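Hi C.,

You asked whether I'd gotten around to modeling the 397-residue construct. I have! Everything is below, sequence then structure, no commentary in between.
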Amino acid sequence: MSVRKREWTTPKGVEKSAWVVDYHDTTGQRRLKTFAKKRDADKFSATASVEVREGVHVADSASVSVYKAGALWISSGENAGLERSTINQRKSHLELHIKPLIGDTLLSKLTVPAVREFEDRLRKEGRSQAMSKKVLTSLGSILADAGERGLATRNPVRDIRGGRKGRERRSERRQKGRIEVGVDIPTREEIKALVASLEANWRPFFVTAVFTGMRSSELRGLRWQDVNFKQGEIAVNQRADQFGEIGAPKSEAGTRIIPVPPLVINALKELRLKQGNPTGLVFGNPDGDPRSHTNIINKGLIPAMVRAGVTVESGEVYAEGNPVLKAKYTGMHALRHFYASWLINRKEDGGLGLPAKMVQERLGHASIVMTMDVYGHLFPRNDDGGELADAASALLN
């Protein structure tokens, strides 16, 4: 690798000069890079020498822009058969967040400081912390895909994340806090009121949701062949995405068998008789297709919550001065949270008292860490109150 000065005269007689770095890249191909100042040429030469020696150098002329790499990343996902919702999210992150800020930047120039500045700009320009994190994750995936194609040898997003992973996890826990009964998790009394207020056409769906903890997508994709009336079990083998397309559960752990109480079996038997011994989706719309998640929330869950009196003040008032009430829980995940708490609670408190591993399996979590991160504080402790007093007494006497 050499640095030399090049001098020439333009057709108009103007003398010019520049500094040229002459080197061979990791593939053995000769490269020339020109600089106006010697110190910039020397700096590049020193950096490139190390990168070539370590096999991580990509010349600018052999690199592509972040946007081009992003388009290839999306193409990879489409060829791999990823769900349409996942592809749409990739496109959204690339077009709305990555392209406007660093789309024209070459991958060879995307360093840790450049990624850090990109992250700062995302937040300064109004993206939430959650959205910024998702976009940064997508950028890391773009760079990983580019690396597999030989277009990049470094992944500065991975370098950043590697140093802050534990710190980020602790920060997220502090910000999210613990989910609480009566705030994030419906109470037993609220669930009783909800079940009692269900209209006949929605009762089978929400009774199943409450006592299986199935995700909305899993309920929408449930088939009659997956309901074992004799054994009192429901098998989760597929899900319907936001576009109504049927696919596999979210993870391998999502495929599971859930024991259900007679209340659910009886509700499903009544629904099957009403439908005339069907063979398709359990909770399909009149055309037999999966119901939309929006329809379930707006037509089913929210009205049922209001009828049950499970409400909070909306902040608005009627003309006569009475407060306008709205549903306290407006997402299906509240019912999933309740199911988890029901599995965890002691039997004397109306729960099943199951160990953490069984709770993980029933919920379809990919790891026990996920289960404990969300619900660990709900598990009964065995060293409270009287037991602590007895232990202290035994120790000192």
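If it helps when you're writing up: The chain has three domains: 2-57, 66-176, 188-378.

Thanks,
B.
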